[in-house]
Amino acid sequence: MEMRIDAHTHVMPPDMPDFQAKYGQERWPVVVKTSETEADIMVAGKLFRKVTEQVWSPGKIVEDMDQEGIDMQVVSPIPVTFSYWAPLEQALEMIQLQNDFIAGMVKERPDRFIGLGTVPMQDVEAAIKEMDRCVHELGLSGIEIGTNVNGENLDSPELLPFFQKAEEWDVLVFIHPWETLAKDRTPRHNFMYTVGMPSETALAAASLIWGGVIEKCPDLKVWFAHGAGSFPYILPRLDQGWNVWPDLRVTEHPPSHYMKNFYFDALTYDEQNTEYLIEKFGVDKLVMGSDYPFLLKESPPGKTISQMKSLSHEDRAKLMGETAASLLKVKERQTENG
């Protein structure tokens, strides 16, 4: 029977402190429990997201996994907690609280959980130090970062040492949209989630290849959330731009040349879109991910992949878990975690 790994899920500690009260900045996400099993995440006094114990209770998460036929989850922080805008020491406090919580989940149930940590990208030296701790001390399997750092695209020269060290240590970098572009135009209809996030992810991916990061880090492994948003569909346009604007080139080859470094979760909700990703980049570049436990999650996880009649048994097994297990070195991590 194929292994099923949900490679895109989010968690947070059950006892997140009130950083807004502690440090006096309204941009901190504040968790307000409304019952034993429910809470509101508030930002600047406004509701950001309603959550349930599915984000903080490993027991409830395992119960849901059993019901939906999921063997393992890849758990990562909720992007609103990245806090790149905050002073380093304060941001690092929140970051380490989450990394320690996720590491505890993995240590307690290495058979069910794979952990991704996060780092303070506003200070690259500190980000590298925390990545070192996450991977080499806590036993986490990769690092989640946002699509920009305080408005700077990921090809900012200041960020290059982080990617170089991730390449050196063979650390998978999971890129998730946050602080999306056109924020003033997307509140209506919740377009931040349905339009802003896919567009933001495309900008991050384009920046990494056009800006030369991937050329300078040829062995870096980067994984994008939500099927990389709109990026796969605008890649030919990026190539055309590279062809017609030679004065803007900083890479030897056009953007599509550097795609071997990119991986995607297959959270497209659509069989044709998933087939396009497979045809364009190869079945070995996709992993199943649901975005559990949020409203936009695919339920059950892998539903679209399961419905695809065009897939062979071997390819379906790769998408459902084999590729994620290899990419995240599951067997190695389980051995290390005892």
Separation of termini? 24 Å
Number of strands: 11
State the secondary-structure class: alpha/beta
* Spatial strand arrangement across the major sheet: 1-5-6-7-8-9-10-11
| The CATH fourth-level homologous superfamily | Metal-dependent hydrolases
Number of helices: 12
The CATH topology name reads TIM Barrel
- What assembly state would you assign to the polypeptide chains in this entry? single chain
- The overall number of domains is 1
Helix proportion range: 25-40%
CATH architecture: Alpha-Beta Barrel
H/E order of the elements? Answer: EHEEEHEHEHEHEHHEHEHEHHH
Task: Quickly describe the structure.
This protein has helices at residues 19-23, 58-68, 88-108, 124-136, 160-168, 191-210, 213-216, 231-244, 271-281, 303-307, 313-327, 330-336; strands at 5-11, 30-33, 38-43, 46-52, 72-77, 113-118, 142-146, 172-176, 222-224, 262-265, 286-287. The protein is α/β, with parallel strands linked by helices. It has a single domain, classed as TIM Barrel (Alpha-Beta Barrel), CATH 3.20.20.
